[in-house]
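Customer escalation, tier 2.

The customer says the design service returned an amino acid string that "doesn't look like it belongs to this structure." They asked us to rerun it and document both sides in this ticket. The original structure tokens are below, unchanged.
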């Protein structure tokens, strides 16, 4: 069975000193350990170029946290997928619930970003997941079905991350049976949308994953890995996830 993938989303954290510290702990671990589970670190844009130099030829891959839909042009303040590829990123997180909420990103926009990522040779990690209200009112499956239909492009070669909004950064992970139910639901939808290819798409879980709950989460059928926020900034804890995944 393939080892689960671990993706660390630093969000808007990581000044140079902190970034250097995290990366040096990760590199020391990589020197001492083999059989690595696939591990991706997604620092803010400002650290990508610098970190690229350190993680080149190590087991760590680099990802970004967003991209624009255009390749280049008059989009002040934005970053294109081609630029991310140029500085060594291989992955890009798209449609994170923080961007959907704070930047009003729609399924349609996330879909266009996934196309842009694909064209530039990046693997998109498309985030989906319901809010607390949608879970409590039992609408979560409709929300997730809509997000899959709307956010994933016609040709999709990336990863899907199920991140219930109410579990992100709260310290309270979703219950394993609830995660398992949604992961199977997502798989069904992917197969309906993409046929055989939909069976291969890795489906990740994100939301308060920690060293003390990750083992049970990895045991969930069809789960392809985890997307972690807070713990990715504590390299010792993050590496515990990597160790457990091996
Ligand atoms: C996230 O930011 O995608 C996330 C899952 O955060 P946390 O692990 O802190 O809940």
């Amino acid at each position: 069975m393939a080892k689960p993938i671990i993706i660390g989303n630093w969000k808007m954290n990581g000044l140079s000193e902190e970034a250097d510290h995290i990366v040096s702990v990760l590199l020391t671990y990589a020197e001492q350990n083999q059989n690595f589970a696939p591990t991706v670190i997604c620092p803010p844009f400002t650290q990508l170029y610098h970190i690229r130099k350190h993680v080149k030829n190590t087991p760590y891959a680099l990802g970004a946290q967003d991209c624009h839909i255009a390749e280049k042009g008059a989009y002040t303040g934005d970053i294109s997928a081609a630029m991310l590829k140029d500085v060594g990123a291989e992955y890009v997180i798209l449609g994170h619930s923080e961007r959907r909420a704070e930047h009003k990103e729609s399924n349609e926009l996330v879909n266009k970003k996934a196309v842009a990522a694909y064209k530039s040779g990046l693997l998109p990690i498309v985030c989906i997941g319901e809010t607390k209200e949608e879970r409590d009112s039992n609408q979560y499956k409709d929300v997730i079905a809509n997000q899959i239909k709307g956010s994933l492009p016609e040709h999709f070669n990336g990863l899907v991350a199920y991140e219930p909004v109410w579990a992100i950064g709260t310290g309270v992970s979703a219950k394993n049976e609830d995660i398992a139910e949604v992961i199977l639901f997502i798989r069904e939808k992917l197969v309906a949308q993409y046929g055989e290819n939909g069976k291969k798409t890795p489906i990740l879980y994100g939301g308060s994953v920690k060293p003390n709950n990750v083992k049970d989460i990895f045991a969930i059928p069809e789960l392809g890995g985890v997307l972690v926020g807070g713990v990715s900034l504590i390299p010792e804890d993050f590496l515990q996830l990597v160790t457990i995944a091996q």
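Tier 2 assessment: The sequence is consistent with the input. Residues 9, 11, 163, 168-169, 206-209, 227-231 surround phosphoenolpyruvate (CB under 6 Å). The chain has one domain: 37-52+59-65+77-245. Sent an explanation to the customer and offered a walkthrough call.
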